[in-house]
Amino acid sequence: MVTPSETENSEPIERRSFLGVVSGLIGAGISAVLGVTIGRFAIAPAFSSSGEQPWTDLGPLEEIAEGKLVKKNVVVTQDAGWGKFQTQRSVWIVRKGENVTIFSGVCPHLGCAVNIKADKFICACHGSEWDEGGKTLAGPSPRGLDSLEHKVEENKLKVRYQDFKQGISSKEVLS
Ligand code: FES
């Protein structure tokens, strides 16, 4: 049989444990977000592209659509300290006739992936935006998009991929 005092006491205990679970979940969520952000920033140098990257073939120049923001993937060699391995990175190509600009697909703020929305580049992590020339329009990115060295050889567009330091206003190669 349940006495009146037991009924009165059980409700606050349930509410307390519910609030405990909710605050625990909120704490875990905040820790996860901070962990991902700080982790990306801290370990990014260990996963930078290794040494001078070779030229990567992006295909015939005339196959790159004009006036559009075209995404291509390149394979780069990375040095993680304990060994080298290959990974895939994205680059963005803007072509106007023979004029070509190629941007790294890595956000200069904290290294999230750059994407597109309509005719501009965006980073969904913290809301940075750039125009098609790579100039910063909005958000916390400390500089414009990082352009990459490229050339056209035998009508093939080629790029030399590089990683750059994040979170600073100047474009500096990560070595
Ligand atoms: S990582 Fe892109 S805006 Fe912060």
Tell me about this structure.
With 175 residues, this protein is of the alpha+beta class. The chain has 2 domains: 4-44; 49-160, Rieske [2Fe-2S] iron-sulphur domain (Rieske Iron-sulfur Protein, 3-layer Sandwich). Helix content is 23%, strand content 34%. The chain is built from 1 helix and 10 strands, in the order αββββββββββ. It has one helix spanning 4-43; strands at 55-60, 69-79, 84-96, 99-104, 114-117, 120-123, 128-130, 136-138, 149-153, 156-160. It has a 4-stranded antiparallel beta sheet, with no helix packed on it. Strands 1-10-9 form a 3-stranded antiparallel beta sheet, with no helix packed on it. The longest helix has 40 residues, at 4-43. It is elongated and about 75 Å long. FE2/S2 (inorganic) cluster (FES) is lined by residues 107, 109-112, 123, 125-126, 128, 139-141.
